[in-house]
Amino acid sequence: MATVDDVCAIARALPQAVESVSYGTPVFRIRDKTFCSMSRDNSSMGVKVPRDDRPELIEAEPEKFFIQRNDEGFHWVRVRLAAIDDLDELRAILIDSWRQCAPKSLAATLDD
Fold first, then answer.
1. Is the pTM of this model over 0.85?
2. How many CB atoms within 10 Å of residue 22?
3. Rg, C-alpha atoms of the chain
4. What is the pLDDT along the chain (112 residues), one digit of tens a residue?
5. Which of 7, 8, 29, 82 sits in a 20 to 30 Å window from 1, CA-based?
6. What CA–CA distance (Å, rounded) separates 11 from 55?
7. Angle at 80 between CA 87 and CA 70, to 5 degrees
8. What separation, in Å, do the N-terminal and C-terminal C-alpha atoms of the chain show?
9. CA distance 100 to 4
10. Contacts 24+ apart (CB under 8 A), 70-73
């Protein structure tokens, strides 16, 4: 199971990631675009995804991916940390979200 400390360590390591706090929880941005935010109870994180991919993610793994009512209008999905099997999976999710927000030239510099 992934933890909030795991999320923070991986997100902080991404190029030009900036950490802040919103409503008492960690939020990560790149150039003022949020790519990760923790839930208030630290049980899940919100990440940016292509809106068209959201239904497929939720249908394929509903125990892992979900949306909240206030996320419906955004390119955003929630990820339950308890459902993350290993840190490589967590890293891949965070990198995908970071790439959605990073300028293309910067995103191209990051190897998976």
1. yes
2. 11
3. 13
4. 999 999 999 999 999 999 999 999 999 999 999 999 999 999 999 999 998 899 999 999 999 999 988 888 889 999 999 999 899 999 999 999 999 999 999 988 886 5
5. 29
6. 25
7. 135
8. 21
9. 21
10. 71/46
Rounded to the nearest 5 degrees, what angle is found at the Cα of 99, between the Cα atoms of 60 and 93? 35
Q: Give the pLDDT of residue 112.
A: 54
CATH topology of domain 4-107: Aspartate Aminotransferase, domain 1 (3.90.1150)
Q: Enumerate the domain spans of the chain.
A: 4-107
CA nearest neighbour of 35 among 112, 92, 102: 102
